Amino acid sequence: MPRIAFNFVRSVGKAHSLHKYNCRLCCGNVRHFASQDSSGKDEPPTNSKSPSDNEVDAIPERLSPDNKAATLPAPKISLDLLRRRQAQKKDQEQVEKFITPEIYPPMGRRSKILDYLERQDCFKRRMVMDIPEFYVGSILAVTMADPHANGKTSRLVGICIERKNYGLGASFKLRNVIDGQGLEVLYELYSPLLHKLEVLKLEKRTDAHLLYLRDALPEYSTIDPDMIAIKHPPGRPVPVNDIVVKMKPRPWHRRWERYELKGLDVSGVSQSRMATVQDHILPEYKKMDLLMMYPRYDITEKDRMRIEREWEVHQNELERTAKKGS
Amino acid sequence: MWQRSVLCLARQTTCPLMKFSTTTPCSAIILRTRLRVVDNSALGASAIDRPPYCIHVYNKKHVGKLGDTVLVAIKGEKKKALVVGVRRPGDNMTPRFDTNNIILLEDNGNPTGTRITVPIPSVLRKRTDLSKVFAIATKFV
Question: Biological process (GO) annotations (chain B) (predicted)?
Fold first, then answer.
Protein backbone atom coordinates (compact mmCIF):
# COMPACT_ATOMS: atom_id res chain seq x y z
CA MET A 1 0.00 0.00 0.00
CA PRO A 2 1.59 3.29 -1.02
CA ARG A 3 2.44 5.64 1.78
CA ILE A 4 0.53 8.84 1.50
CA ALA A 5 2.25 11.89 2.86
CA PHE A 6 0.08 14.71 4.05
CA ASN A 7 1.64 18.07 4.28
CA PHE A 8 -0.75 20.58 5.69
CA VAL A 9 -0.06 24.07 4.62
CA ARG A 10 -2.94 25.85 6.13
CA SER A 11 -3.75 23.72 9.11
CA VAL A 12 -2.90 24.84 12.60
CA GLY A 13 -1.30 22.40 15.04
CA LYS A 14 -4.54 21.68 16.84
CA ALA A 15 -6.45 20.76 13.71
CA HIS A 16 -3.58 18.58 12.62
CA SER A 17 -3.54 16.60 15.81
CA LEU A 18 -7.16 15.68 15.24
CA HIS A 19 -6.48 14.64 11.68
CA LYS A 20 -5.61 11.12 12.68
CA TYR A 21 -8.99 10.64 14.31
CA ASN A 22 -11.11 12.53 11.84
CA CYS A 23 -9.65 11.65 8.44
CA ARG A 24 -11.37 8.72 6.84
CA LEU A 25 -8.76 8.36 4.12
CA CYS A 26 -5.84 7.72 6.39
CA CYS A 27 -5.23 4.32 7.77
CA GLY A 28 -2.92 3.69 10.66
CA ASN A 29 0.14 3.09 8.56
CA VAL A 30 0.32 6.66 7.38
CA ARG A 31 3.04 8.82 8.79
CA HIS A 32 1.76 12.22 9.80
CA PHE A 33 4.09 15.13 9.52
CA ALA A 34 4.38 17.21 12.64
CA SER A 35 4.23 20.64 11.08
CA GLN A 36 4.26 22.45 7.78
CA ASP A 37 7.97 23.20 7.95
CA SER A 38 9.33 19.77 7.18
CA SER A 39 13.00 20.15 7.95
CA GLY A 40 13.92 16.86 6.44
CA LYS A 41 12.54 14.93 9.39
CA ASP A 42 10.60 12.07 7.94
CA GLU A 43 10.29 10.02 11.07
CA PRO A 44 7.11 10.38 13.13
CA PRO A 45 7.74 12.50 16.21
CA THR A 46 7.06 10.15 19.07
CA ASN A 47 7.60 6.42 18.67
CA SER A 48 10.27 4.64 16.72
CA LYS A 49 7.73 2.31 15.14
CA SER A 50 4.54 3.64 13.62
CA PRO A 51 1.43 2.40 15.34
CA SER A 52 -0.70 -0.17 13.63
CA ASP A 53 -4.41 0.43 13.51
CA ASN A 54 -4.95 -2.65 15.66
CA GLU A 55 -3.20 -1.32 18.71
CA VAL A 56 -4.98 0.46 21.48
CA ASP A 57 -2.80 3.28 22.76
CA ALA A 58 -3.19 4.41 26.29
CA ILE A 59 -2.65 8.08 25.39
CA PRO A 60 -2.60 10.07 22.16
CA GLU A 61 0.84 10.38 20.58
CA ARG A 62 1.10 14.09 19.99
CA LEU A 63 1.29 15.54 23.46
CA SER A 64 3.65 18.42 23.68
CA PRO A 65 5.41 20.80 21.30
CA ASP A 66 8.77 19.20 21.92
CA ASN A 67 7.32 15.84 20.90
CA LYS A 68 8.22 13.90 24.01
CA ALA A 69 6.20 10.78 24.58
CA ALA A 70 4.43 11.04 27.91
CA THR A 71 5.41 8.24 30.22
CA LEU A 72 1.96 7.23 31.31
CA PRO A 73 1.77 3.65 32.42
CA ALA A 74 -0.85 1.99 30.29
CA PRO A 75 -0.79 -1.48 28.81
CA LYS A 76 -0.60 -1.86 25.04
CA ILE A 77 -2.65 -4.79 23.96
CA SER A 78 -4.14 -5.45 20.58
CA LEU A 79 -7.73 -4.43 20.03
CA ASP A 80 -8.67 -7.94 18.92
CA LEU A 81 -7.37 -9.46 22.12
CA LEU A 82 -9.19 -6.88 24.20
CA ARG A 83 -12.44 -7.52 22.38
CA ARG A 84 -12.06 -11.28 22.77
CA ARG A 85 -11.39 -10.93 26.48
CA GLN A 86 -14.42 -8.71 26.96
CA ALA A 87 -16.66 -11.11 25.02
CA GLN A 88 -15.38 -13.98 27.17
CA LYS A 89 -16.03 -12.07 30.33
CA LYS A 90 -19.54 -11.23 29.21
CA ASP A 91 -20.29 -14.88 28.61
CA GLN A 92 -19.00 -15.81 32.02
CA GLU A 93 -20.85 -13.11 33.87
CA GLN A 94 -24.59 -13.11 33.96
CA VAL A 95 -24.72 -9.61 35.33
CA GLU A 96 -23.35 -6.59 33.52
CA LYS A 97 -20.50 -5.20 35.57
CA PHE A 98 -21.08 -1.78 36.99
CA ILE A 99 -18.92 0.97 35.56
CA THR A 100 -19.41 4.23 37.34
CA PRO A 101 -21.00 6.81 35.02
CA GLU A 102 -18.81 9.79 35.96
CA ILE A 103 -15.72 8.42 34.17
CA TYR A 104 -17.26 8.83 30.74
CA PRO A 105 -16.45 12.32 29.51
CA PRO A 106 -19.28 14.45 28.16
CA MET A 107 -19.80 15.29 24.52
CA GLY A 108 -17.61 17.75 22.81
CA ARG A 109 -14.03 18.51 22.01
CA ARG A 110 -12.05 17.84 25.15
CA SER A 111 -8.48 17.38 26.26
CA LYS A 112 -8.01 13.68 26.68
CA ILE A 113 -4.99 14.18 28.87
CA LEU A 114 -6.90 16.33 31.34
CA ASP A 115 -9.74 13.84 31.35
CA TYR A 116 -7.30 11.00 32.00
CA LEU A 117 -5.63 12.87 34.86
CA GLU A 118 -9.01 13.69 36.39
CA ARG A 119 -10.04 10.04 36.23
CA GLN A 120 -6.81 9.04 37.95
CA ASP A 121 -7.55 11.54 40.72
CA CYS A 122 -11.01 10.01 41.07
CA PHE A 123 -9.49 6.55 41.43
CA LYS A 124 -7.06 7.86 44.03
CA ARG A 125 -9.93 9.17 46.12
CA ARG A 126 -11.75 5.87 45.72
CA MET A 127 -8.76 4.07 47.23
CA VAL A 128 -9.32 6.06 50.39
CA MET A 129 -13.11 6.26 50.52
CA ASP A 130 -15.43 3.58 49.30
CA ILE A 131 -17.85 4.96 46.73
CA PRO A 132 -20.35 2.19 46.18
CA GLU A 133 -22.43 1.38 43.18
CA PHE A 134 -25.70 3.30 43.20
CA TYR A 135 -28.24 4.61 40.76
CA VAL A 136 -30.96 7.20 40.56
CA GLY A 137 -33.69 5.74 42.72
CA SER A 138 -31.38 4.10 45.24
CA ILE A 139 -31.65 5.02 48.89
CA LEU A 140 -28.42 6.33 50.35
CA ALA A 141 -27.11 7.48 53.71
CA VAL A 142 -24.44 10.17 53.50
CA THR A 143 -22.18 10.99 56.44
CA MET A 144 -20.64 14.41 55.99
CA ALA A 145 -18.21 16.51 58.02
CA ASP A 146 -20.02 19.14 60.05
CA PRO A 147 -18.02 21.31 62.47
CA HIS A 148 -21.12 22.39 64.36
CA ALA A 149 -22.63 18.96 64.91
CA ASN A 150 -22.10 16.85 68.02
CA GLY A 151 -19.88 14.11 66.63
CA LYS A 152 -18.49 16.52 64.02
CA THR A 153 -20.45 14.58 61.38
CA SER A 154 -24.03 14.75 60.16
CA ARG A 155 -25.92 11.95 58.49
CA LEU A 156 -28.64 12.34 55.90
CA VAL A 157 -30.74 9.54 54.46
CA GLY A 158 -32.55 10.07 51.20
CA ILE A 159 -33.43 8.86 47.76
CA CYS A 160 -31.04 9.71 44.94
CA ILE A 161 -32.93 11.79 42.39
CA GLU A 162 -30.14 12.84 40.08
CA ARG A 163 -26.54 12.10 39.14
CA LYS A 164 -24.51 14.59 37.17
CA ASN A 165 -21.12 15.71 35.88
CA TYR A 166 -17.83 14.18 34.96
CA GLY A 167 -14.83 13.27 37.09
CA LEU A 168 -14.08 15.08 40.33
CA GLY A 169 -17.10 17.32 39.93
CA ALA A 170 -19.48 14.38 39.89
CA SER A 171 -22.49 15.02 42.08
CA PHE A 172 -25.75 13.47 43.17
CA LYS A 173 -28.90 14.85 44.78
CA LEU A 174 -30.57 13.28 47.77
CA ARG A 175 -34.17 13.97 48.61
CA ASN A 176 -36.14 13.28 51.77
CA VAL A 177 -39.14 14.58 53.65
CA ILE A 178 -38.24 15.18 57.30
CA ASP A 179 -40.91 16.35 59.77
CA GLY A 180 -43.15 17.18 56.83
CA GLN A 181 -40.50 19.36 55.20
CA GLY A 182 -39.22 18.26 51.83
CA LEU A 183 -35.56 18.97 51.27
CA GLU A 184 -32.82 18.15 48.79
CA VAL A 185 -29.07 18.24 49.14
CA LEU A 186 -26.57 18.19 46.31
CA TYR A 187 -23.47 16.20 47.33
CA GLU A 188 -20.18 16.15 45.49
CA LEU A 189 -19.04 12.51 45.27
CA TYR A 190 -15.33 13.30 45.50
CA SER A 191 -15.51 16.01 48.12
CA PRO A 192 -13.22 15.37 51.10
CA LEU A 193 -16.11 16.48 53.33
CA LEU A 194 -17.89 13.22 52.58
CA HIS A 195 -16.90 10.61 55.12
CA LYS A 196 -19.13 7.72 54.27
CA LEU A 197 -21.58 6.67 51.59
CA GLU A 198 -23.86 3.78 52.42
CA VAL A 199 -26.34 2.31 50.03
CA LEU A 200 -29.35 1.32 52.11
CA LYS A 201 -31.32 0.04 49.16
CA LEU A 202 -29.82 -0.59 45.75
CA GLU A 203 -32.34 -0.22 42.99
CA LYS A 204 -32.95 1.58 39.73
CA ARG A 205 -35.90 3.48 38.42
CA THR A 206 -37.42 3.73 34.97
CA ASP A 207 -36.31 7.35 34.53
CA ALA A 208 -32.91 9.02 34.28
CA HIS A 209 -33.83 11.48 37.04
CA LEU A 210 -36.53 11.81 39.66
CA LEU A 211 -36.85 15.58 39.86
CA TYR A 212 -40.63 15.20 39.54
CA LEU A 213 -40.75 13.91 43.11
CA ARG A 214 -40.98 17.56 44.18
CA ASP A 215 -44.45 17.66 42.65
CA ALA A 216 -45.41 14.15 43.64
CA LEU A 217 -47.21 13.23 46.84
CA PRO A 218 -44.78 13.42 49.78
CA GLU A 219 -45.13 9.73 50.59
CA TYR A 220 -42.98 8.89 47.56
CA SER A 221 -40.07 10.99 48.87
CA THR A 222 -40.33 10.02 52.54
CA ILE A 223 -37.50 7.74 53.62
CA ASP A 224 -37.15 6.57 57.21
CA PRO A 225 -33.87 8.02 58.57
CA ASP A 226 -33.39 4.95 60.79
CA MET A 227 -33.87 2.57 57.92
CA ILE A 228 -31.77 -0.60 58.04
CA ALA A 229 -29.71 -1.38 54.97
CA ILE A 230 -31.12 -3.99 52.63
CA LYS A 231 -28.17 -6.03 51.45
CA HIS A 232 -27.98 -6.61 47.77
CA PRO A 233 -26.76 -10.13 46.98
CA PRO A 234 -23.66 -9.91 44.79
CA GLY A 235 -24.03 -11.29 41.29
CA ARG A 236 -27.74 -10.52 41.16
CA PRO A 237 -28.92 -7.89 38.69
CA VAL A 238 -29.99 -4.58 40.20
CA PRO A 239 -33.79 -4.52 40.53
CA VAL A 240 -35.72 -1.93 38.56
CA ASN A 241 -38.51 -0.31 40.53
CA ASP A 242 -41.23 0.51 38.00
CA ILE A 243 -43.40 2.38 40.45
CA VAL A 244 -45.71 5.01 38.95
CA VAL A 245 -45.88 7.97 41.26
CA LYS A 246 -49.05 9.95 41.94
CA MET A 247 -48.76 13.68 41.63
CA LYS A 248 -50.00 16.59 43.68
CA PRO A 249 -52.60 18.80 42.03
CA ARG A 250 -51.28 21.33 39.54
CA PRO A 251 -49.43 23.73 39.28
CA TRP A 252 -46.20 21.79 39.05
CA HIS A 253 -42.66 23.14 38.91
CA ARG A 254 -42.28 21.89 35.37
CA ARG A 255 -44.66 20.48 32.80
CA TRP A 256 -43.73 16.91 33.54
CA GLU A 257 -46.19 15.53 31.00
CA ARG A 258 -43.86 16.83 28.25
CA TYR A 259 -40.79 15.02 29.50
CA GLU A 260 -41.64 11.43 28.51
CA LEU A 261 -41.14 10.14 32.01
CA LYS A 262 -42.36 6.67 32.80
CA GLY A 263 -42.42 6.92 36.56
CA LEU A 264 -45.23 9.41 37.04
CA ASP A 265 -48.95 9.30 36.58
CA VAL A 266 -50.12 11.92 34.07
CA SER A 267 -53.69 10.69 33.91
CA GLY A 268 -54.92 13.78 35.76
CA VAL A 269 -53.57 16.18 33.15
CA SER A 270 -56.27 17.83 31.01
CA GLN A 271 -56.78 16.82 27.38
CA SER A 272 -55.86 20.25 26.06
CA ARG A 273 -52.48 20.02 27.78
CA MET A 274 -51.86 16.50 26.60
CA ALA A 275 -52.58 17.60 23.03
CA THR A 276 -49.60 19.98 23.14
CA VAL A 277 -47.25 17.30 24.46
CA GLN A 278 -46.44 15.93 20.99
CA ASP A 279 -45.05 19.32 19.93
CA HIS A 280 -42.43 19.09 22.64
CA ILE A 281 -41.38 15.50 22.20
CA LEU A 282 -38.62 14.80 19.68
CA PRO A 283 -39.67 12.75 16.63
CA GLU A 284 -38.17 9.27 16.32
CA TYR A 285 -35.62 10.21 13.67
CA LYS A 286 -34.26 12.98 15.91
CA LYS A 287 -34.05 10.61 18.83
CA MET A 288 -31.82 8.34 16.76
CA ASP A 289 -29.52 11.27 16.06
CA LEU A 290 -26.17 10.17 17.42
CA LEU A 291 -25.11 13.67 18.31
CA MET A 292 -28.10 14.06 20.56
CA MET A 293 -27.82 10.70 22.19
CA TYR A 294 -26.45 9.96 25.59
CA PRO A 295 -22.85 11.27 25.86
CA ARG A 296 -21.40 7.79 26.07
CA TYR A 297 -22.03 7.23 22.38
CA ASP A 298 -20.01 10.21 21.37
CA ILE A 299 -16.83 8.48 22.50
CA THR A 300 -15.13 6.32 19.92
CA GLU A 301 -15.01 2.63 20.74
CA LYS A 302 -11.27 2.85 21.20
CA ASP A 303 -11.58 5.59 23.82
CA ARG A 304 -14.46 3.87 25.57
CA MET A 305 -12.51 0.64 25.87
CA ARG A 306 -9.53 2.56 27.15
CA ILE A 307 -11.63 4.14 29.87
CA GLU A 308 -13.17 0.81 30.78
CA ARG A 309 -9.73 -0.72 30.95
CA GLU A 310 -8.64 2.01 33.39
CA TRP A 311 -11.69 1.24 35.53
CA GLU A 312 -10.82 -2.48 35.48
CA VAL A 313 -7.26 -1.76 36.56
CA HIS A 314 -8.55 0.42 39.38
CA GLN A 315 -11.04 -2.22 40.55
CA ASN A 316 -8.29 -4.85 40.59
CA GLU A 317 -6.09 -2.55 42.66
CA LEU A 318 -8.94 -1.99 45.11
CA GLU A 319 -9.42 -5.73 45.49
CA ARG A 320 -5.72 -6.22 45.96
CA THR A 321 -5.46 -3.62 48.72
CA ALA A 322 -8.60 -4.98 50.36
CA LYS A 323 -7.06 -8.47 50.42
CA LYS A 324 -3.79 -7.07 51.79
CA GLY A 325 -5.65 -5.28 54.56
CA SER A 326 -7.68 -8.33 55.55
CA MET B 1 -47.04 28.37 41.60
CA TRP B 2 -49.99 30.58 42.34
CA GLN B 3 -51.98 31.50 39.25
CA ARG B 4 -54.07 34.60 39.03
CA SER B 5 -57.52 33.68 37.87
CA VAL B 6 -58.79 36.17 35.30
CA LEU B 7 -62.48 36.47 34.56
CA CYS B 8 -62.87 36.17 30.81
CA LEU B 9 -66.16 37.89 29.97
CA ALA B 10 -66.39 36.58 26.42
CA ARG B 11 -66.16 32.96 27.59
CA GLN B 12 -68.19 33.32 30.72
CA THR B 13 -70.81 30.79 29.75
CA THR B 14 -68.44 28.03 28.71
CA CYS B 15 -65.38 28.72 30.84
CA PRO B 16 -65.91 31.22 33.65
CA LEU B 17 -62.37 31.27 34.94
CA MET B 18 -59.31 31.30 32.72
CA LYS B 19 -56.22 30.61 34.71
CA PHE B 20 -52.80 31.50 33.42
CA SER B 21 -49.68 32.77 35.06
CA THR B 22 -48.58 36.23 34.10
CA THR B 23 -45.22 36.54 35.81
CA THR B 24 -42.22 34.24 35.78
CA PRO B 25 -41.66 32.67 39.17
CA CYS B 26 -38.76 34.02 41.16
CA SER B 27 -37.18 31.56 43.52
CA ALA B 28 -35.39 34.17 45.62
CA ILE B 29 -36.97 35.97 48.57
CA ILE B 30 -37.90 39.48 47.51
CA LEU B 31 -40.75 41.91 47.99
CA ARG B 32 -44.14 40.18 48.01
CA THR B 33 -42.68 36.69 48.30
CA ARG B 34 -45.03 34.47 50.25
CA LEU B 35 -43.35 32.74 53.15
CA ARG B 36 -44.12 29.86 55.43
CA VAL B 37 -43.91 30.30 59.20
CA VAL B 38 -42.34 27.22 60.79
CA ASP B 39 -42.37 28.03 64.49
CA ASN B 40 -45.17 27.34 66.96
CA SER B 41 -46.11 30.99 67.49
CA ALA B 42 -49.83 31.80 67.68
CA LEU B 43 -49.53 34.50 65.02
CA GLY B 44 -47.86 32.14 62.59
CA ALA B 45 -50.43 29.41 63.11
CA SER B 46 -53.40 31.75 62.65
CA ALA B 47 -52.25 33.20 59.31
CA ILE B 48 -53.43 30.28 57.19
CA ASP B 49 -55.98 31.83 54.79
CA ARG B 50 -53.75 34.76 53.87
CA PRO B 51 -50.10 33.66 53.97
CA PRO B 52 -47.53 36.16 55.27
CA TYR B 53 -45.48 37.92 52.62
CA CYS B 54 -42.20 39.76 52.59
CA ILE B 55 -42.29 43.57 52.44
CA HIS B 56 -38.63 44.32 53.06
CA VAL B 57 -35.33 42.47 53.13
CA TYR B 58 -32.70 43.81 55.50
CA ASN B 59 -29.65 43.72 53.30
CA LYS B 60 -28.08 45.83 50.59
CA LYS B 61 -29.44 43.93 47.62
CA HIS B 62 -32.92 43.44 49.11
CA VAL B 63 -32.82 39.84 47.95
CA GLY B 64 -33.21 37.44 50.83
CA LYS B 65 -31.05 34.38 51.40
CA LEU B 66 -30.69 31.89 54.22
CA GLY B 67 -30.13 33.68 57.50
CA ASP B 68 -31.37 37.09 56.36
CA THR B 69 -33.81 39.14 58.41
CA VAL B 70 -36.95 40.19 56.58
CA LEU B 71 -40.00 42.26 57.40
CA VAL B 72 -43.25 40.40 56.77
CA ALA B 73 -46.86 41.49 56.60
CA ILE B 74 -48.81 38.98 58.65
CA LYS B 75 -52.46 39.37 59.65
CA GLY B 76 -52.45 43.08 59.00
CA GLU B 77 -49.35 43.79 61.05
CA LYS B 78 -45.66 44.16 60.33
CA LYS B 79 -43.31 41.68 61.94
CA LYS B 80 -39.63 40.87 61.65
CA ALA B 81 -38.68 37.35 60.65
CA LEU B 82 -35.60 35.22 60.02
CA VAL B 83 -35.23 33.12 56.89
CA VAL B 84 -34.41 29.55 57.88
CA GLY B 85 -34.95 27.72 54.63
CA VAL B 86 -34.95 28.75 50.98
CA ARG B 87 -36.18 27.19 47.77
CA ARG B 88 -33.40 28.63 45.69
CA PRO B 89 -30.39 26.27 45.64
CA GLY B 90 -27.44 27.59 47.60
CA ASP B 91 -23.93 26.21 48.04
CA ASN B 92 -23.33 22.54 47.37
CA MET B 93 -23.76 20.21 50.34
CA THR B 94 -26.33 22.59 51.88
CA PRO B 95 -30.01 21.69 51.91
CA ARG B 96 -32.55 23.21 49.55
CA PHE B 97 -36.04 23.26 50.99
CA ASP B 98 -39.31 22.86 49.18
CA THR B 99 -40.71 25.96 50.88
CA ASN B 100 -39.33 29.33 51.92
CA ASN B 101 -39.39 29.06 55.69
CA ILE B 102 -39.29 31.83 58.27
CA ILE B 103 -39.52 32.14 62.03
CA LEU B 104 -41.06 35.25 63.54
CA LEU B 105 -38.90 37.54 65.63
CA GLU B 106 -39.66 40.25 68.16
CA ASP B 107 -38.22 43.73 67.70
CA ASN B 108 -35.35 42.89 70.03
CA GLY B 109 -34.41 39.93 67.87
CA ASN B 110 -35.71 37.14 70.09
CA PRO B 111 -37.84 34.45 68.46
CA THR B 112 -41.59 34.71 69.06
CA GLY B 113 -42.25 30.97 69.19
CA THR B 114 -40.81 28.38 71.54
CA ARG B 115 -40.11 25.60 69.07
CA ILE B 116 -39.20 25.22 65.39
CA THR B 117 -41.10 22.33 63.89
CA VAL B 118 -39.00 21.68 60.78
CA PRO B 119 -35.29 20.96 60.27
CA ILE B 120 -32.90 23.91 60.08
CA PRO B 121 -29.78 23.97 57.89
CA SER B 122 -26.68 23.22 59.91
CA VAL B 123 -24.67 25.88 58.10
CA LEU B 124 -26.67 28.54 59.95
CA ARG B 125 -24.90 27.52 63.14
CA LYS B 126 -21.79 29.47 62.28
CA ARG B 127 -23.90 32.58 62.92
CA THR B 128 -23.22 33.09 66.63
CA ASP B 129 -25.79 35.88 66.92
CA LEU B 130 -28.61 33.39 66.28
CA SER B 131 -27.95 31.27 69.37
CA LYS B 132 -31.47 31.87 70.70
CA VAL B 133 -32.91 30.51 67.47
CA PHE B 134 -30.81 27.34 67.70
CA ALA B 135 -31.96 26.86 71.25
CA ILE B 136 -35.55 26.40 70.06
CA ALA B 137 -34.65 24.33 66.99
CA THR B 138 -35.41 20.60 67.06
CA LYS B 139 -33.41 19.20 64.18
CA PHE B 140 -30.45 20.23 62.06
CA VAL B 141 -29.87 19.01 58.52
Answer: translation
